[in-house]
Amino acid sequence: MKRRQLLQSTLAFGTLSSVALPAPAVVADKPKADMSTDVVIVGGGFAGLTAAVMASRAGAKVVVLEKRSYCGGDGVLSAGIIASAYSEVHKAQGFKGKADLDSYWQLIEEGHTDEPLSKVRDNMPNSPMYSGIAKHDPNVLRRSAEMSPAVAAFVMSYGIDFLPINPQQPFLLPSEPGSMPKFAQAMLDELQKRGVSVLLDSAVTGLETQTEDKGQNRVTGVRFVRDGKTQFIRARSVVLATGGFSDNRQMMRRYKRVWANIPKGFTAIGEGVPPGHDGDGITLGRLVGGAIEDMESMPKLFAAPKPGDRSPSWILFDTDTAYLVDKFGRRFCNEHESRYAGCALACFRQNIDGAYVVLDEATVTGPNKERWRYSDLLTAKALFKGQTIEEAATKAGVDPKGLQRTLQRIADDAAAGKGDTEFGRKDKLFRALKGPFYVSTPSWPVRFKTEGGLEVNPDFQVLRAADDTPIPGLYAIGATCGSISTRLCDVIASGLIVGPIAAAGA
Question: From CA 195, how far away is CA 290, in angstroms rounded?
């Protein structure tokens, strides 16, 4: 029995027993078009804009349709960290550490990235989540990983600067704070110069198809509504880049189950995630026979304070010495290895009622002070300073005696030189804290992106649910497809790959 047939035969995975879908409209094979183009990009986030740039550079006539009144999507609210093997950024900084592609891929295979569930490991026979059923083509994620140096070079080409690489995190390339809106605008500027039509407030309502040999359909364009008027664009290639489905309550309840109960929160830089993640592209793809995958995996988790408050980003565990405790002053996870998603997951699983970041003067005044804006956090009373642990803990509402015991254990472990005896930290950032001490306001786990979407091959062609063959003329990238991560680097990589392919009309 083929993989797709197996998935269709059981409701246990829920992959195809989904929410009710509207019936596709019955249309003529060759309806009259309001306009024609080579490539239509549905969605103006980072994946869609990248694909548009690359398709235009390849000589294609391109139209971008964005249902919001602006482009950039969630990418403009990203911290701007590119995960990449050895790249132009490494070269420009004279990085001498180990950052080769094979080592980067090994980290992905072993699940040591910020993935909730490694999409590679889920293919393994001993996977506890999927009982040996291969959900993904690992070649898709591998191709994205191989493209990572090109992603870094692409971002650099728009004048985006990168902060020094942390030798302990050689594959994480942090851009200057506030870079991502500039990156989005730079892509839009290029598209304007190239004569690419970017139509805002344009909601796609359906895909048009044409019957080919053997009764199979080819996607030939899209219908969309703008200014109350329905229009049809005929195109050789349609690229779906509409993002995930975190705002679709029906889909969240159907697929994410317990994860659907976690409130939608904030991005890496603490801004509210905008609405509009309705699963439009996934639904459009399914209506023409597309397969879906990974829909039931855990969404991307982060941590956020109460609305209106601020708190340190948990991404700082990648670069700075800091620890995470509950209100009783107790640690509950390996902060460095778990990264922000793992820390948030630990909060959720252990029912932590607010988690507090604890750090010291050496961190607050260290080399990353501008990146994490510790001074702004102090001004906003998102960090509380104390000459003693007791003073800082009391100001923040953390049990001072419990925190004293925790920090003393860390100090004893560090002095012994054997690493963290409680949670196994062995990184060079593990050290004793020295006063003055700082304790943050609390944060709670939130979700900000969904994993899962349309199934694609390594060329990001959408595959049919019936037989896993590509649907001609249809592609899915970014969070709309299920075979890659929704990390910034993978989102951009999918656009870099698809742009030239869609331009060729493959």
Answer: 32
Measured CA to CA, the distance from residue 19 to residue 215 in angstroms comes to 27
* pTM: predicted TM-score of the whole model, two decimal places: 0.85
Q: Is the Cβ–Cβ distance between 291 and 463 less than 8 Å?
A: yes
Q: Where are the domains of the chain?
A: 24-298+450-504, 306-442
CATH code for the structural domain at 306-442: 3.90.700.10
Burial class (CB in 10 A: 0-12, 13-18, 19+), 8: middle
Three-class DSSP category at 261: helix
Phi, psi angle pair for 75, to nearest 5°: -55, -35
Residue 65 CA to residue 76 CA, distance in Å, equals: 18
CATH number of 24-298+450-504: 3.50.50.60
- Over the stretch 112-163, which tens digit does the pLDDT of each residue have? 665 544 454 444 444 344 333 445 678 898 899 999 999 999 999 999 999 9
Q: Minimal CA–CA distance to 133: which of 143, 120, 119, 122?
A: 122
**In terms of C-beta distances under 8 Å and separation of at least 24 residues, what long-range contacts does 126-130 make, across chains too?**
129/297, 130/13
- What tokens does 13 get? 């995975």
CA distance linking residue 57 with residue 402, whole number of Å: 59
The DSSP result for 336-390, as a single string, is: HHHHHHHHHHHHHHTT-S-BEEEEEHHHHTSTTHHHHTHHHHHHTTSEEEESSHH
Q: Tell me which residue of 481, 504, 478, 494 sits closest to 39, measured CA to CA.
A: 504
pLDDT in tens, 218-264: 999 999 999 999 999 999 999 999 999 999 999 999 988 888 888 88
Measured CA to CA in angstroms, residue 204 lies from 50, 226, 290, 389 at distances of: 19, 9, 17, 56
Contact 3, 133 (CB under 8 A): yes
306-442 matches 24-298+450-504 in CATH topology: no
Q: How far is CA 504 from CA 58, 235, 294, 499, in A?
A: 8, 12, 29, 9
Query: Phi/psi of residue 256, each to 5°?
Result: -90, -20
| Rounded Cα distance, 52 and 71, in Å | 12
